[in-house]
Amino acid sequence: MAYRSQMGYINAVALPDNMYQNEINHWRMRMTLIIVASFLIFALSVFYLYRIICLTVESISKANGTDWKRRSSGGA
C-alpha cells in the first residue's frame, strides 16, 4: 500500500490496508477514551473542591451567625 503525498514523496506501508485502518481506528478510540476520562476526572475534582470549599464556608458562616450566600451576592 503506497500513498503519494502532495509534496511529491511516496509513503509506503508494508501492512494490509484493513490491518492499517484497524490500528488507526483503535488509536483514535483509545485517544477519545483518554480525553473523555480526563475531562470526567477534571469535572469531578472541580465538583469535589467546590463542595469542600462551600461546606467549609457555610459551616464558618453558621458559627459566626452570618448568611454567606446573601453576602456573596454582591449586595451592600
Oligomer: single chain
| End-to-end gap | 72 Å
Sketch the major β-sheet. 2 strands, antiparallel
Radius of gyration: 27 Å
Helix content: 55-70%
Mean pLDDT: 82
Reading the helices and strands in chain order gives: EEHH
The tally of domains stands at: 1
What structural category arises from helix and sheet content? mainly alpha
Rough outline: rod-shaped
Strand order of the largest sheet: 1-2
Number of helices: 2
Question: What's the arrangement of secondary structure elements?
Answer:
Blueprint: E1 2-4, E2 10-12, H1 17-64, H2 68-72
Antiparallel strand pairs: 1-2
Description of the molecule:
- The protein is mainly alpha-helical and 76 residues long.
- The protein has one domain.
- Helix content is 70%, strand content 8%.
- It has helices at residues 17-64, 68-72; strands at 2-4, 10-12.
- It is rod-shaped and about 75 Å long.
Notable features of this structure?
76 residues, mainly alpha, single chain, rod-shaped, 2 helices, two-stranded antiparallel ribbon
